[in-house]
Amino acid sequence: AVVSTQSGNYGRDAELEQSKSVMAHGGLKDAARKIIMEDVFRPLHNKGEWKVLVVDSLGRKIISTCLKMKDMLDNGITIIEHLSMVRQPLTYLDAVYFVRPSQDNLLKIRSDFGEFENSGRLYKAAHLFFTEIIPDQMLIELAKSDMAPFIQTVKEVHLAFLPIEERVFSLDNPTAYNDYYGGKLTEQKLEEIAEQLVTVCATLDEAPCPKVRICHSNLDCVKDLAKKVQAKKKKVPTATLR
């Protein structure tokens, strides 16, 4: 799904106000880049120290959309690896994970530190940066896991979308349009979409004001999504989200 942040027919004043707000951030790409640089890379960067960046599919696309290789090299990232790929041990380097907080990703990360049979430790330590809100149960699992002594950072970045243009973003869900109008959106998928939309609002430090075309076939779906967005935005303390 590709969405524009430009307002619809809410009145000229409202449209101009929203336009100024988006421009104040330099657009979605600049806002996303600033978050990654200031919240992920720079706090960990020590001159002369190198780290590995480990990403999932969405994380890889976000990084490639917002940053250049020079940005990462300047901040001590020497290698980029995919979480799902077979990787060689680099036990002398810390790993910076930029991934979604899914159960599958959590199991892979724990496997990277030798928790399961036939797995060995790949990295010196782990810095975990999640693109969305971390479920409480996942934090409990991490705290009780064998890899806990290796975890040096756990943080929510609230950046789970692709900033395509200055005011256009994608949720990287190619089936969303057909699922939405075909009535095939599951409860889990609605949760994911709501979570991603809240991260867009957090990136721009804006409250959501969705406008959709409602028909009988998707009325309930729209209401459910709106409720989920309103509930989830209360869990994002880093944004104003008025």
Give a short summary of the structure.
It contains 9 helices and 8 strands. It has helices at 12-24, 27-41, 57-66, 69-74, 103-112, 136-144, 176-181, 187-204, 219-233; strands spanning 2-4, 51-55, 77-82, 94-99, 126-130, 151-156, 162-165, 168-170.
Biggest sheet, in brief?
5 strands, parallel
Helix content: 40-55%
What assembly state would you assign to the polypeptide chains in this entry?
single chain
SSE-based structural type:
alpha/beta
Beta-strand content bin: 15-25%
Q: Count the helices. How many?
A: 9
Question: Which regions have little confidence, pLDDT < 50, spanning 5+ residues?
Answer: 6-16, 238-242
Mean pLDDT: 83
Spell the H/E element sequence: EHHEHHEEHEHEEEHHH
Instruction: Give the termini distance in whole angstroms.
Output: 25 Å
What is the total tally of β strands?
Answer: 8
Shape: globular
Please give the radius of gyration in angstroms.
19 Å
Strand order of the largest sheet: 3-2-4-5-6
Report what the structure shows.
The protein has 242 residues and is α/β, with parallel strands linked by helices. The protein has nine helices and eight strands. The strands form two sheets. The chain has a five-stranded parallel sheet with strand order 3-2-4-5-6. Helix 8 crosses helix 9 (219-233). The longest helix has 18 residues, at 187-204. Mean pLDDT is 83; it is low at 6-16 and 238-242.
